[in-house]
Amino acid sequence: MGIATEDLERRIKTCTLCRLHRLRKNAVPGEGPHDARVMLLGEAPGRNEDLRGVPFCGAAGKFLDELLGIAGLRREEVYITNTVKCRPPQNRAPLDDEIKICTGKYLKKQVKLIKPELIVALGRIAAKALLGKEIPITAYHGKMVKARFAGLTLSIFLTYHPAAALYGAKTRLKLKEDFAKLAEVLKTI
Ligand code: URA
Ligand code: SF4
Q1: Nearest ligand atom owner, CA of 82
Q2: From the CA of 18, which ligand is nearest?
Q3: Which of 67, 153, 65 is closest to 112 using CA atoms?
Q4: Distance CA 176, CA 99 (A)
Q5: Which residue minimizes the CA distance to atom 2 of ligand 2?
Q6: How far is the CA of 148 from the centre of ligand 1 (A)?
Q7: Which residues contact 135 (CB under 8 A, 6 or more apart)?
Q8: How far apart are CA 127 and CA 133, in angstroms?
Q9: Neighbour count for residue 14 (Cβ, 10 Å)
Q10: For residue 74, what pLDDT is reported?
């Protein structure tokens, strides 16, 4: 028996491997069934998530719940986590070294243990972490790609970050269209 998802979740809560541990109130390991078919990957915890230790529990999370409904998914059936597990100061984007340390130690293991059939990359940072390179999300949103990650070939569905939609109606509409596409994709896997 190797390490299980709950062991990882426990280790993340006390992790001090990168500078992001210093200002956090709570690390946010992730939440959902440990055999979920679908994993959702965000960027990093925000203020509400840091206070509660729960992923996507603020405004972006409320919109994410609406999007999940469009895809025919319930929050209880997906595993939701972030690229880095601790909140960056002032919600800045996580830095490359923080992403490397955190994903190497935790996300890779979460993916190997949960083995989701599909991962939804929410935004640029999640896409970069999974694909190992920057992609223009405006060109790739709503599309499926395959990538090697953690020694597995993953099916990744690319879309915007739901927080981006809080600033613009256009992105909001595009996200809804992408999650309607995701509903179709899920019927084929
Ligand atoms: N934004 C993220 O990327 N993740 C969360 O958990 C909340 C907001
Ligand atoms: Fe550890 Fe990741 Fe938090 Fe950094 S962001 S302290 S690597 S759990």
Answers
A1: 1
A2: 2
A3: 153
A4: 28
A5: 102
A6: 24
A7: 124, 127, 128, 158
A8: 8
A9: 8
A10: 98
Cβ–Cβ under 8 Å, residues 88 and 38: no
Q: What is the pLDDT of residues 118-152, one digit of tens each?
A: 999 999 999 999 999 999 999 999 999 999 999 99
Residues in contact with ligand 2 by the CB-under-6-Å rule are: 12, 15-18, 20-21, 27, 84-86, 98, 101-102, 105
pLDDT tens by residue, 94-124: 999 999 999 999 999 999 999 999 999 999 9
Q: If you average pLDDT over residues 16-45, what whole number do you get?
A: 98
Residue of 7, 22, 50, 98 best suited for mutating to test ligand 2, as the one with most atoms within 8 Å of CB: 98
19 CA to centre of ligand 2 in angstroms: 8
**CATH of segment(s) 2-186:** 3.40.470.10
Q: Give residue limits of the domains in the chain.
A: 2-186
Nearest ligand to the CA of 84 is: 2
Confidence (pTM): 0.97
